[in-house]
């Protein structure tokens, strides 16, 4: 493999690995946001149960729900942003992987062409040696 092809492949591998790490980090943040939403849903159910059992808690439920709706809205908007970020990261990773495969294909084609050329030179050398022996 030529030095330039090796360098391009190494750089592309680094880019792919970096994007894979970025995607993993985004997926982790997304999972955390989904857990936060689930916890918020569980919290409101607990508060509703408490409000059914206790009249004072029932009076405070509306104020709690207002704050809960704001927190849930923020968590849902974070999740929407993370979904878009994840889609962008997946697209970037797909593009980088495609570029890596192109470089690998070019390097392999170059290597095969060099082998074919070496084979042709060897065949020509043997043909020439055969012609010399015949004429001698």
Automatic annotation (TrEMBL):
**UniProtKB keywords:** Cell projection, Cilium, Coiled coil, Flagellum
Fetch the Gene3D superfamilies from UniProt: 1.10.287.1700
Which intervals of the chain form a coiled coil? 16-50
Q: What is this protein called?
A: Flagellar export protein FliJ
Q: Which organism is it from?
A: Brevundimonas staleyi
Q: What is the lineage of its organism?
A: Bacteria, Pseudomonadati, Pseudomonadota, Alphaproteobacteria, Caulobacterales
């Amino acid at each position: 493999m030529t030095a330039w092809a090796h360098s391009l492949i190494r750089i592309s591998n680094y880019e792919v690995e970096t994007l894979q790490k970025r995607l993993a980090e985004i997926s982790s943040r997304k999972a955390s946001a989904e857990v936060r939403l689930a916890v918020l849903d569980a919290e409101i159910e607990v508060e509703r149960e408490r409000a059914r059992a206790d009249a004072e808690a029932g009076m405070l439920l509306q104020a709690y729900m207002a704050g809960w709706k704001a927190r849930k809205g923020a968590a849902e908007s974070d999740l929407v942003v993370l979904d878009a970020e994840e889609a962008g990261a997946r697209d970037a990773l797909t593009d980088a992987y495609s570029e890596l495969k192109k470089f690998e294909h070019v390097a392999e084609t170059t290597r095969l062409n060099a082998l074919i050329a070496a084979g042709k030179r060897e065949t020509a050398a043997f043909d020439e040696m055969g012609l010399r022996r015949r004429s001698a």
